[in-house]
Amino acid sequence: MEIEGFAAKSGSSEKLSLLSRAAYGCGGTAEVIMANLVIILALPIFNLGLGIDAGLIGLALFIQKFWDAISDPLMGNISDNTQSRWGRRKPYIFFGAILTGFFCMVMWMPPTGVSDKTLIIYFILATLLYYTAYTVFFVPYNALGFEMTSNYDQRTKLMGSKVMFMNFGSLAFLSVALKLCFTLGGGDEVKGVRYVGMIYGLIIIAFGVVPALFCRERVVTKKQEKTPLSKAVVMTLSNKPFMILCGVIFTMLSAAMIGGP
Asked: Is 134 among the domain residues?
């Protein structure tokens, strides 16, 4: 794989512009909403509002996480092996943001006057579509951040911008999501979530497409050899430091879930 001249030098002094860092950071706002909105609203809306058994909602979320474990490496392989005039990351970021915003609207518009079985099937299908679209955005978006510069200091600043925008998204949007459901629904959270879904879907699209429009891919892919998925999996599993890190993260998350309230 060829790398542009500046990127081939780990000590490159080329600086990312403020616009580039801010544009990439905007994707962080979209990402934090994509990742957490379902967790915040699923039980209040489908369990308390619609009366669906909490165990079934948990099962639906488990199915989604299981699908994530399959779709994430698939999306990474697809993005890595893509060759287009727009690059190998930005097309997925652009359309992934639009699709995630759309399915965010659909997910929070459950049908009325139907059985609990129909509602839980609707929720499962909606979350699968939503998180599949999220994967299309999320995997290339995170890869883009590491490919915008090879300079350690510039990459640190870039990731700092992302974290700043993620914190902004959490404080400005996620913290008021449930309250907005009651406010816009006149006390009826099920009615209000329909408006919240539309609003937050548009927010996801607005922030999510910005990296695709204003960030520059700096990796030349015309001569890149395609990597089969099987080979990529073997390479990943043979990376001992990465597997140790995965084990530590898994242990920490498991302990937090077991010891949590």
From this structure: yes
Q: What is the pLDDT of residues 203-257, one digit of tens each?
A: 999 999 999 999 988 755 555 666 677 777 788 888 888 889 888 877 876 776 5
> Does residue 55 belong to any structural domain of this protein?
yes
Q: For residue 124, give the amino acid letter.
A: I
> Comparing C-alpha atoms, which of 51, 139, 44, 128 is closest to residue 90?
139
* Residue (of 85, 94, 93, 89) closest to 222 by Cα position: 85
Run of H or E residues at 96: helix 90-107
Instruction: Give the domain extent around 45.
Output: 18-225
SS3 content of the chain, % helix, strand, coil (to 5): 75, 0, 25
Do 45 and 29 lie in one domain? The reply is yes
Asked if 227 and 77 touch (Cβ cutoff 8 Å), the reply is yes
Identify whether 3 is part of a domain. no
Mean pLDDT of 39-54: 95
Do 207 and 162 have their domain in common?
yes
Q: Six-digit token pair at 156?
A: 């640190």
Q: Show the tokens assigned to 90.
A: 């930005």
Nearest Cα residue to 139 out of 2, 27, 244: 27
CB of 154 closer than 8 Å to CB of 15 = yes
Q: Which two structure tokens, joined as six digits, stand for 79?
A: 């993005």
| CATH (domain of 52) | 1.20.1250.20
The tokens of 75 are what?
Answer: 């999306």
Q: Is 173 helix (H, G, I), strand (E, B) or coil?
A: coil
Tally the domains of the chain. 2
Check if the beta carbon of residue 156 is closer than 8 Å to that of residue 19: no
Residues 83-114 have pLDDT tens digits of 888 899 999 999 999 999 999 999 999 999 99
